Automatic annotation (TrEMBL):
Name of the protein in question: Glyoxalase
Organism: Streptomyces hoynatensis
Superkingdom of origin organism: Bacteria
Family matches, as PROSITE patterns: VOC
VOC domain location: 2-114
One Pfam family named in its UniProt record: Glyoxalase
Length: 115
């Protein structure tokens, strides 16, 4: 299993204002589903930040997203370790397979893979 990217998720009700703010630092919108927006640096596309008003299908808003090449393997590792699964492994309508797990510090991590 390999990590493809890591993106901080900022919980905010000021999504559009955040786009403008981070735009001042050079970020540009690369994805917007209405409830989550991802901004990236045009010169370094892996430098990203997401702003979320809420999560569309999960009971909590994750603090961090980690994209992996094999989300099923990641799920098995986390489940077998005894880590708290906060949101079950599932396919989402926007083209990702994901689950949420709580880290030792209490943060919620969205572990995902694109289909």
């Amino acid at each position: 299993m390999a990590v493809r990217r890591v993106v901080p998720n900022l919980r905010s009700d000021a999504v559009q204002e955040s786009r403008e703010f981070y735009g001042l630092l050079g970020f540009e919108e690369v994805m917007n589903h209405g409830w989550i927006m991802t901004l990236a640096s045009p010169s370094a596309p892996s430098a990203q930040v997401s702003v979320m008003a809420r999560d569309k299908t999960a009971p909590v808003t994750p603090d961090l997203s980690v994209e992996v090449d094999d989300v099923d393997a990641a799920y098995a590792v986390m489940r077998d370790s005894g880590a708290e699964i906060v949101h079950p492994l599932r396919d989402e309508e926007w083209g990702v397979r994901r689950f949420f797990v709580r880290d030792p510090g209490g943060r919620v991590v969205n572990v995902l893979g694109h289909r």
